[in-house]
TrEMBL record:
<feature type="transmembrane region" description="Helical">
    <location>
        <begin position="268"/>
        <end position="286"/>
    </location>
</feature>
<keyword id="KW-0732">Signal</keyword>
<keyword id="KW-1133">Transmembrane helix</keyword>
<feature type="transmembrane region" description="Helical">
    <location>
        <begin position="306"/>
        <end position="324"/>
    </location>
</feature>
<feature type="signal peptide">
    <location>
        <begin position="1"/>
        <end position="24"/>
    </location>
</feature>
<dbReference type="InterPro" id="IPR006201">
    <property type="entry name" value="Neur_channel"/>
</dbReference>
<feature type="transmembrane region" description="Helical">
    <location>
        <begin position="243"/>
        <end position="261"/>
    </location>
</feature>
<protein>
    <recommendedName>
        <fullName>Neurotransmitter-gated ion-channel ligand-binding domain-containing protein</fullName>
    </recommendedName>
</protein>
<feature type="domain" description="Neurotransmitter-gated ion-channel ligand-binding">
    <location>
        <begin position="31"/>
        <end position="235"/>
    </location>
</feature>
<dbReference type="InterPro" id="IPR038050">
    <property type="entry name" value="Neuro_actylchol_rec"/>
</dbReference>
<dbReference type="InterPro" id="IPR036734">
    <property type="entry name" value="Neur_chan_lig-bd_sf"/>
</dbReference>
<dbReference type="InterPro" id="IPR036719">
    <property type="entry name" value="Neuro-gated_channel_TM_sf"/>
</dbReference>
<dbReference type="InterPro" id="IPR006202">
    <property type="entry name" value="Neur_chan_lig-bd"/>
</dbReference>
<feature type="region of interest" description="Disordered">
    <location>
        <begin position="353"/>
        <end position="385"/>
    </location>
</feature>
<feature type="transmembrane region" description="Helical">
    <location>
        <begin position="403"/>
        <end position="423"/>
    </location>
</feature>
<keyword id="KW-0812">Transmembrane</keyword>
<dbReference type="Pfam" id="PF02931">
    <property type="entry name" value="Neur_chan_LBD"/>
</dbReference>
């Protein structure tokens, strides 16, 4: 037993004696290259040998997604920003470092262009670019492709809602440098962002996008920036189903009511129910559409004006019932020019039914005999009012009311057609 204990102690002592002489892991070519490149490097200074030299940054965008908040008038764009510039301190001979031609650096280890959004709407976010790694090539070129979120105000014009199109702009440029120290370059043969991996939005379709370089001069000093413009169109299928089509049904209900005789109870019922439905949809559209200042959406104007027209149609119906069915104690003939127009061809087309011409008769004092005479003469009251007719000109007044009703029908039809042409 003692022999085994002694052997164990001796072997443990030998291992302990060898431990201090174990060699540390050898330094790799990559770590040696990184150490040499970062020695004496100042990430807060522009990477040029002469301060008069201009740093040129090539910029491109790969669009990934977008979103537009109408109520807040805020537009969000998600993209990958491709930035390429030349860093004069990042240059080496690959043969001295195991033929390494490129090396990675963490975010903010090297100098980065101070690009920012001039019309930024995110007050809490100044750094718009994600902290991704940079790729440095032995030719001194630095490539940085950070994920980017731009949030800018976008004033929406909802007048054509839900068939509206919106244009949102983003201005990107250097915050501290002018064009003589940091110049922005864009690809000469490209004027639109790459949308190969674009994720469609459920509310908006991307119609077009452009980006261009713009240079402004202040005291003869150039200040370049990039202007991104995105044109969006609303996906209106669901809004058409729940807002526009009911408006068409309301218009059809009003026209059907005008086709009914003013004396019928169904006409008043249709108008009253349609007024209630119109009020509900007017409130719904007002709640669904954000407040847009002086530019009132046409669909909201449609339901507002339709409510006025319904109210006028209700008053019109009451007036026509009085005109056509009120019993007059003394004969009141129509003016000659109205009588002449009633006998004209356009009046016959508008009134559709044959004009009554045999309804002028004396009052017998018996309602039953009068109704029998009317049936025998083939001249029923076109309004169905059931009022005893002791006026020989009563049929003329009833037919005038019938003509006015047809004229109102044509006027309402034309107005609603104009409404829908303007809306669509």
């Amino acid at each position: 037993m003692d022999i085994f204990v002694k052997v164990f102690l001796v072997s443990t002592s030998l291992l302990w004696l060898k431990a201090p002489f174990t060699h540390a892991a050898s330094e790799t070519d990559t770590s040696r290259l990184r150490k040499d490149l970062l020695t004496g490097y100042d990430k807060n200074s522009r990477p040029v040998q002469n301060h008069r030299d201009t740093t040129r940054v090539k910029v491109n965008f790969i669009l990934k997604g977008l979103d537009l908040d109408e109520r807040k008038s805020i537009f969000n764009m998600h993209a990958w920003t491709v930035l390429v510039w030349e860093d004069g301190h990042m240059k080496w001979d690959p043969k001295s470092y195991g033929n390494i031609t490129r090396v990675h650096f963490s975010a903010h280890e090297l100098w980065q262009p101070d690009l920012t959004v001039y019309n930024n709407a995110d007050k809490s976010e100044i750094d718009h670019f994600g902290n991704t790694r940079l790729i440095v090539y032995n030719s001194s070129h630095v490539v940085w492709v950070p994920p980017t979120k731009f949030q800018v105000p976008c004033q929406t014009d909802l007048r054509k809602w839900p068939y509206d199109q919106q244009t949102c702009s983003i201005n990107v440029g250097s915050w501290a440098h002018d064009g003589t120290t940091l110049d922005i370059l864009i690809p000469s043969n490209i004027s639109t962002m790459d949308v190969t991996d674009f994720r469609p939005n459920r509310e908006w379709d991307l119609i077009s996008n452009t980006f261009e370089k713009r240079t402004k001069y202040f005291a003869e000093v150039p200040y370049p920036d990039i202007v991104l413009k995105l044109n969006l169109a609303r996906k209106s299928s669901s809004h058409t189903a729940c807002v526009v089509i009911p408006g068409l049904a309301i218009a059809a209900a009003i026209l059907i009511a005008f086709w009914l005789p003013p004396g019928s109870s169904e006409r008043l019922s249709i108008l009253l129910v349609t007024i209630l439905i119109n009020v509900l949809y007017l409130y719904y559209v007002y709640s669904a559409i954000p407040n847009n200042g002086d530019s009132v959406p046409l669909v909201l104007l449609f339901y507002r004006d339709s409510l006025f027209m319904l109210a006028f149609a209700l008053v019109w119906t009451v007036c026509l019932r009085y005109l056509a069915a009120t019993k007059r104690d003394s004969p009141v003939p129509l003016p000659s020019f109205i009588t002449g127009f009633l006998a004209s061809f356009p009046a016959k087309i508008l009134c559709l039914d044959p004009r009554p011409t045999t309804g002028r008769r004396e009052n017998t004092g018996s309602e039953g005999n009068e109704q029998g005479d009317g049936a025998a003469n083939g001249n029923p009251n076109p309004f169905g009012s059931g009022v005893e007719k002791n006026n020989p000109f009563q049929d003329d007044w009833a037919w005038l009311a019938h003509l006015l009703d047809r004229v109102a029908f044509m006027v309402y039809l034309i107005i609603y057609m104009i409404f829908y042409l303007a809306l669509l």
